[in-house]
Amino acid sequence: MGKLQCLMKSDNGSLVCFLFFLGDITQKGYEKKRSKLLQAYLPHTPGNTHTPYFTKQHTRRIPVTPSSSSSSSSRYQRRRSTGTRDERYRSDVHSEAVQAALEQHSERKMAVLLPSKRQSLIGQTSMDTYTPPDSSSGSDAEGSLGRAGGVSMDSWISRALHGSPSTSSSSSSHSNSSANAARLAETNMHSYSSKNSIIAYMCVGVPVSSRVSAKIQQLVNTLKRPKRRPLREFFVEDFEELLEVQQPDPSLPHPEGAESTPIQGEELNGLKNCPSSLEAALLRWGAIASKAPCLTTTHSNAKQPYTLTYGKLWSKSLKLAYNLLHKLGSKQEPIIHPGDRVALVYPNNDPAAFMVAFYGCLLAEVVPVPIEVPLTKKDAGSQQIGFLLGSCGVAVALTSDACHKGLPKSASGDVMQFKGWPKLLWVLTDSKHLSKPPREWFPLIKDANNDTAYIEYKTCKDGSVLGITVTRMAMLTHCQTLTHTCGYSEAETMVNVLDFKKGIGLWHSVQTSVLNMLHVVSVPYALMKVNPLSWIQKVCQYKAKVVCVKSRDLHWALMAYKEQSDTNMSSLRMLLIADGSNPWSISSCDAFLKVFQSMGLRSEVICPCAGSPEALTVAVRRPQEGSPKPAGRGVLSMTNLSHGVIRVDTGEKLSVLALQDVGTAMPGAMVCVVKLEGVPQLCKTDEIGEICVSSVATGTSYYGLTGMSKNTFEVGLVSDCVFVRSGLLGFVGPGEMIFISGTLEGLMQVGGRKHNADDIIATALAVEPMKFIYRGRTVVFSVNVLYDERIVLVAEQRPDSTEEESYQWMSRVLQAIDGIHQVGVYCLALVPANTLPKTPLGGIHLSETKQLFLEGALHPCSILMCPHSCITNLPKPRQKQPEVGPASVMVGNLVAGKRMAQASGRDLSHMEDNEQFLFLSEVLQWRAQTTPDHILYTLINTRGAIGSSLTCLQLHKRAEKIATLLYERGQLQDGDHVALVFSPGLDLIAAFYGCLYAGCIPITVRPPHPQNISTTLPTVKMILEVSRSVCVMTTQAISKLLKSRDASVAVDFKSWPPILETDDLPKRRCPLLYKPCDPDSLAYLDFSVSTTGMLAGVKMSHNATSALCRSVKLQCELYPSREVAVCLDPYCGLGFVLWCLCSVYAGQQSVLISPMDLEVNPALWLQSVSQFKVRDTFCSYSVMELCIRSLSSLTDSLKARGMDLTRVRSCVVVAEERPRVALTQSFCKLFKDVGLHPRAVSTAFGCRVNLAICLQGTSGPDPTTVYVDMRALRHDRVRLVERGSPHSLPLMESGKILPGVRIIIANPETKGPIGDSHLGEIWVHSPQNASGYFTVLGEENVRSDHFGARLSFGDTQTVWARTGYLGFLRRTDLTDASGERHDALYVVGALDEVMELRGMKYHPIDIETSIIRAHRNITECAAFTWTNLLVVVVELDGSEQEALDLVPMVTNVVLEEHYLIVGVVVVVDTGVIPINSRGEKQRMHLRDGFLADQLDHIYVAYNM
């Protein structure tokens, strides 16, 4: 036992550690043993009457107090020597609770994934970048959530937390896999990821490997672990939008007591000889005690304190009153009249000037509005203060000379016009600037009446500022009640540390002091920062009777205290704790009493009070000499409090909140507790509610806001009494003592339970934060996401803490809050030091911080999102219903009178001259003979002039020479495959027809990009290999590029097939041109990489090629006299057909513009269309985007240079995707000024199986747009809604169905036909269908029936090609060219791209559209899935420091609009997301690059 005592005396922590090693001891056993061992050391001072009134069991929760006061202070010194610790928000009970919660979690080992960060971003929080904040890091000022906490035995907590083995920093293993162009094979990818997903968990869950795929696998594993029982889902995504009515859970705690009754304060007996108003009091003391000191103030730099006497206060106030009424403006038109509002702008170190101004206004019957001094043009919350001044009609601001000098000035030397502020006349109130009033002038001193005396401002939760009006009668009565309860008597000395401009500081040190002729010693905030003990020194120096402080002032004094023999606090009869209503102030009070009890401080002197701007003082604990009435304490269960129920903690749980009483109701006041929700009604006795006060001494309204005032200041509850809401939450306990548990402003309702922001902060700060964050700079608020509030915690991070340490601390905070409050934190963000917006007194400005978070402008340096644990109200996952058979569907549709979804273009029967030829090579020869000089192709150069052109004869002759080249130099046979690697131009066209003349099969291939050869060259090589090309035909320049050193690094030159250069062609032409005998034989191969990363080559027969050309010719009415402008990539799909084939077939002149040239001259395409007076033009989405991006500000100059698009009849966007409505609409709006008609812009649709299914063409109705319900689409249903409906998605018709094309909509699973306006796969039957796949790389299990599908019911004979796209047909009321009702085809998206999450189907483009709107810095994004996780990649257009802003914005918008949780957010530079030539995102390339760590991401966030 001797050893135990020795341990006990040396350190509390070691005792506890010793107890832990005694063996397997239970919590109850530990408690018992602990109390037994500590009994000898517990004090038995008769003065300490703070006994819990609820139950005797809680005596053990009183903090451990050493046997003597001297040892206590020396122990305090020892504790301080280890580093000045900020003990606010501290409580022994809470520290133990947090430790227990963390221990429970440590058994579960919660995995926290460190985000991947670019090195440049990690450097941003270095010591050099940020200056460390001043020594008063905890300077949590008046407006902030500053709360103090007491001394506690917590060294063992730090040992328990930091004793765990630390982790090694995660090594980043960048894989160096080859940048394979297609990077496509899903099969390889799956096996690839499984090899890398073996994760070593460490003791705090930080993985060894930072490999992206491994981290995702770890995240998946984490999410698979069972979560705690989810909250009842109160939002059910029913198709009919029915919200489930939440049934109250009978097992939850609910109030069981009787209805509470209002409590009545004692009678306010008329105070003897009391003045009839404050002005009368000032007049009295100014006359009979002019030398009596009124206010003594000390500046931190001044040697001598300044004392203002009552005589001086009277004379100065009188002088100011006269000047306000008679010296501003002219005699005929004075600027200020009685009743006008004026602003009082005084710094916190000048209470004397403020007091003079305040009483000067009262004497002049002008209404003062005290506000904070604006320090900069962009002060946090300054704009809202301006709105208050504007709404109060303030035109004059009173200030002191010194303060005026410090205000921001404009160039002219006047005070700057602050944002949102009215224009103000600044009046200096120092005596030297004022005229002396004439002797005969005297203000009218009235009795207190119901005129407004002053307006006090208050900042709300949302940042808005309200002005609370207080009448002269209320002000006087309030001073009288304070005099009565605090026992003030004439000439007493009071020390004030509080802000004298508002609240308790104003009420006691400016108003009540004058009523009672008190001497106030003011200790300014600046002095407290330099010397936290200054207020105690003043108490001793002046033998003060009363002192007004906040609990943080007690705490700071304790921190700075060194034992001094001359400290004597026995003169104090009242230590008023302004924030005593805050539960977290208790431990500061206890610790302070413990240390200073030996210096004459009595326990009954400590008087917590509660007040609010609306209700003024609600309650004060009376200073009782000899204390007949013990103070009240209670330890309540926090879980029950979250349900609004008061339950005494039984000692089993550690989730508790200790409360102290704030005294009883004020004299003459009635107090009741009202339910928080619904119509105002009294709470039950065991229920938490809002404290309401009925008294003369309260505020009367919010200035100028009658509606809000009625709700707050006119609550009718009992008989004819009108109550005022105080904004304080609490209950009335035994002995009519009032207990406050929190504030309405700090209340957050999450999942039906209420949590107080202060309690959450206290829990976070109990997790040893000193190494990582600044304690006084932590805020908690809630944001609304998906029909509920979500908790966000923001703190300033210390510059010297590493990222890994910060994330470990953040993860422990999450665990602690989960364990103590049973609530998840949605987002935890750490920002660099000194970056959060501050209030004028140095605390963090809550609403401004929240606004920055919501706008994505907080710029955090570390962020942890935990949506998986917080969002428990997602719609229920969709259950797969057993499929109805195709026959039943068809019969059901017929019975219901619904048409089956099928449509077709017009017939192809009519033949013309050139249509007698089956082969394009024959058509070219025929044109060379009949119209040799007719120009077929004109290529525009970058300057907009004609670079070169080809007539029918020139093209024919050139093709002949190329055929000779193939025969002679290439030694090629009929049917050999030749790769044509050319830039967009006329060489490509000639080479194509040369191949046809030689009987070879051409494959057009995009040449490698010279600036990006290492990634683009392997694609070229791969297409050559899979197309089995025996020869490459190209120009000399590209041939050189293929042989260059850079190229040989990516692909060995020796591995290329023979290369033929077309720059030097044979002089003689081919003696015999090849004539194909079978129209179904192969004409060319069309290779393309789909958006899903599949490289597919389709076989185009001569027959299909001719049918396609003929179909386009009919739809677009193409003839030799027509001119068409084409700005497309000529390598695949309809782009290639329009560039190379249509002009030869139909004879029109094609004006060709290379999309690559637009990067040099963005206006080239539109200038060419205008210059050549073209009526029909074709482009791609990427061309359209480039024009919008580059020409958006140049439309006026283009118009001035003569651009005119009025002749354009059709501008068709060629694409293989859903029409991008927003993009086409933006394009139309932008170029409307240069004559582009919105009706001209339309889209085409093609795919691998049929290169052109729809094309708007020249005749027929305009394309229509419908709005569908996005939520119905997720369930494979089409539900049409009105424009602007919630969740509506605009879908534009994809052009008119081409002649000869038949379409049907089929169920992709059952292959049965589907009814009109139902979603299914688009199937097509047409002579222009491709013959089949030549090769498919990247999806070996591709559907074999792509080209030969048959319906399982109905018309089972027709052979269809499956497009792989989802869409629907809808019969419109419009009439097409043939006079029939028009059938519109709407493409929804590719089947391969559909992401199935939670049983519902999502199209990436919908999620991406929402994300791009979420933040101005997101230029592009892509979404894909990986092992059931949604991964979002966003391109950041901004500094890397802003990367982390995007994480919550992306998470929020996807939750709100799509009810999905984003698993991983990747932030990359602009241009990283790969886009193909058609402007489509290559999401699977991106996915492969991401999983192989090849993206060079700025930041990767793993949402927990």
Automatic annotation (TrEMBL):
Residues 164-178 have a biased composition (Low complexity). InterPro entries: AMP-bd_C, AMP-bd_C_sf, AMP-dep_synth/lig_dom, ANL_N_sf, Dip2-like_dom, DMAP1-bd. Gene3D superfamilies: 3.30.300.30, N-terminal domain of ligase-like. Residues 43-99, 123-181, 247-269 are annotated as: Disordered. Signal peptide: none annotated. It comes from the Eukaryota. Residues 1-126 form the DMAP1-binding domain. Residues 83-95 have a biased composition (Basic and acidic residues). Residues 46-56, 123-139 have a biased composition (Polar residues). Belongs to the DIP2 family. This is Disco-interacting protein 2 homolog C-like. It comes from Sinocyclocheilus rhinocerous. The gene is LOC107749093.
